[in-house]
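Now for our target.
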Amino acid sequence: MSLPNRPWASAENPCEEIRGLAETAGAAIIGEVTQKRHDIHPGTYVGKGKVEELVGQVKMTDADVIVFDNDLSPAQVRNLEKATEVKVIDRSELILDIFATRARTPESKLQVELAQLEYSLPRLKQLWTHLSRYQAGIGTRGPGETQLEEDRRLVANRIRDLKEKLEVVKSRKEREVRTRAEEHTVSLVGYTNAGKSRLMNCLTHSDVFVKNQLFSTLDTRTRQWHIKDFGKILLSDTVGFIRELPHHLVASFKATLEEARQARLLLHVVDASNPHLAEQIAAVNSVLKELECDKKPTLLVFNKIDRIADRADINLLLAQYPKAVGISCVTREGIDQLTEAVVEALTADFVEAEVTADAANGKVQAYLAAHAEVYRQEYRDGQVILRCRLPRYLVRHVLAEGGELRMIPSVEVLSSGTEQSPESL
């Protein structure tokens, strides 16, 4: 079920993406229904006539479940299930179900469980008695407490426990990523099924799992990418994004996405053959903004250009996105250009610097901690000396906070009292 009043909905098949999600979850599609409405019906999301049509289709096809390509309120789900007498799930619940079946590592399983419980908490309908194994002990149930209240308390306690465990995971992941501060780190991001894992295999000659399906990658993998005359790059493959990715899922997966948050460069991989690539780019940028990664240096990579028959269409696409690179992992077309663009991006906008400031000057230390990659810090004679890598345009801000800055290796000493102005950088 879909409401196609959206810019990404295909006029020919507005249910295309939700069909792919449902099939990924293992469902067999036996019918589709769409409706165009200006306003959402508060009780059932779709109109009364469309609900009657759904009831008829369910009876005619003997369907077991109705999947909405929209997010529904708990009340809307209850009303639709009462009318159709079958299970109703919305887009977020479907995506969470897919993530649950794909989670392999203990870390990703914790993240998915947390997202599912946070999503389900306001939707409890006395179906959670199996969670009683998490109950603290005899006597925890208060006088007059209903089963639903007890279930909510059990779920809330489990959510708290999962958050505590994930905080430990997050701290460990942050320490692990910080140990790579002196390395060139690049992270692959993009819409699900854009070809990120295949690109990683192409660049690093590795054999990470690749399959033409949504969310085939949930766990971050890092491989070494060796570039001639440049050196080693740590390339990370991350979970694919999708439009309207459930907020709870993004929040839960922040530990897994720490690679992207700390990477020096993001490669935003796009399926060039997808007719809705502009909307997919916007969806990925929205998630990156939620992860606070939207300001990172990013290189747009149009993958799968071998699927575009007309060369003029490729040229037109690259003209619309002049800083992008077109590639094919199948034919390896454009891989050399991508490699050159990555090297240029990694070396162009960052400088190695040694910043010296008064040990009591917390502003400089806080500013560098927030905006630079600090990989060495020592205290000497009442001063703090920080070796870091920071964007070139931030040099003047460090000076404004009262720090002295030595560029490595081309500039010897820079401070607010030198003759060379920060603008010359």
User: Anything to note?
Assistant: The chain is about 40% helix and 15% strand.
